[in-house]
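User: Quick sanity check before I run a bigger batch. Here is a single chain. Can you write out its predicted 3D structure?
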Amino acid sequence: QIGLVLLVGLAAKNAILIVEFARGQRLAGLSIAEAAVTGGAIRFRPVLMTSLTFIFGLVPMLIATGAGAGSRRAIGTAVFSGMCVATFLGIFLIPSLYYIFQTISEKGRARRLARQQHDIVKNTTHPLE
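Assistant: Done. Predicted structure follows.
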């Protein structure tokens, strides 16, 4: 359980780095696709370096011997393999998910604005009436 909580925290940190940068690029005027690709590309190296450093730091837990080695190996194996998968999938999946959810969000916002404008026009009285 400790390993899984740690894994979720580190994977979320990497996702936040990518999404926050992509969001900034979107606010700067790039399209959703360009912002997602730019966010993934520019944050690729820092995310990869952080993840690989953590993964290599887990190697001693994977090869632990002596007293308590069973629990160290169990935690090390879960976190090591989980972080490898989370890093690989996160690099490709997070920008894709940003694109999907940002597109849905902006389309919903556009529909709400159109509905509000329609309601305003519908509720205003014509000066000749």
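The chain has five helices and no strands.

User: Great, the batch can go ahead then.
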